[in-house]
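Exercise: predict the fold of this chain.
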Amino acid sequence: MAMASAASRTLGKPLLVLVFLATLLLVLVSAVECYDGRHAVTHPAMARRSRLGMGTRHVHHRRTATPHRYVLAEKSNATGSGAKNRSSPATSNATSPTQAPARPAVPSKHHRSHKHRVRNWIIGFVVGSLAGVISGLVLSVLFRLTLNCIRGRYRSRSGVTIFTPKLIRRAEHLAFLEKEDGLASLAVIGRGGCGEVYKAQLPVEREGVEPRFIAIKKIKKQNSDTPNNLSDEESRQLDKWSRQIQSEIRTVGHIRHRNLLPLAAHVPRPDCHYLVYEYMKNGSLHHALKADGSGSGVAGLSWPARLRVAVGVAAGLEYLHVSHVPQIIHRDLKPANILLDDDLEPRIADFGLAKAMPDAQTHVTSSHVAGTLGYIAPEYHQTFKFTAKCDVYSFGVILAVLATGKEPSDPFFTQTDEVVGLVKWLRRVMLAGKHAEAIDPAIAGAQNEESIVLVLRIAVFCTADEPKERPSAKEVRCMLSQIKIHQDWN
């Protein structure tokens, strides 16, 4: 049923276009037939007039024709008598037979054939154009249906929706999630506001293939079976989780970019939802920056690796803001929501607060501030209006974290007499020219200092108080790419 409804939605508009084009074709054909009928009515009359004129011409020829022997006699007499046998114009006019009356102009066969050629050319051009448009629409619809089937955007009978068939090839691979104790034996790899995150291994289809792992996010939902004795805070939390699950499916389920973590599958349950993602063994950027080699993840990040992360996040943000239609605003960019794959390539994750913004809108208005303290743009606190420049502000804070090694919640900013955050502290240091104080000691070095200072300046640029003074995601990505090229060259 879901496949049929999706197919009907896909075929709705193209069918209307096909009906319109078919109607237009019928009108054109009927108009051509009317033209051909009028031409057929006038053709017999013209033919009759042509035959009458030909008959008169033949009669006149028979009446006025002179036998050949008399012509020869006249020619012989004319040589001897000269001007004697010449008749005067008056006598000639009097003795000549009556000439045939003037005939109306009759279209020649060439003219009629030219009209037929023009008419046939017009009909062929119109019919060929309409046939090409109709066939193109049909092929595009069939291609889209095939692509959707390949991507697995139609639900299976069990209710499982697969968005990334390259990772999860069959719905039976997630059958264990339909059991009551499906997650009992799985390891918990994270906890967030929406619930726990588990790690699971997919079944191995054949020997010799490396096992594949997935991350499963469990999100509770509110339904008719939910107890009525919940507090207001618990009810609001369940509503928030419900909105976030819808946002995840609506946005990240249908986007594809190397720096975005795609939603692999959605498994609905009576009491919760399971969101399935590809497992990132290097964890989040937050843990990678704090890692010391004693646990899972990477043992710290070098400056070239951090710069690569910055360029990748900027590319993903550019895709959301510029390339994707409609524009998507993440609203919760922070190191904890940036995951690292096997090659330390960043993936923007957790689209629970993301909003799709149509072209006609310039901002998203919310009833309360959503996001993480320290990464929220100042205008969002005041107006509750979130724009793409708010994401740029959050990304500027991430750049500051990459270069300084300090997060907004770092105890360093609470030990001073004056309460000051990461952004204001970085501005003061950069204006005073004390760049060495801002650079993380773990990445300090003469070979990295130039590019680190440039990234810090971009961070100050992105965290300007006025949104108009901040660059766009595309401009930030271009600047960081140039810095990375220069760093790699040296």
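Check your answer against the key: The two ends are 59 Å apart (CA to CA).
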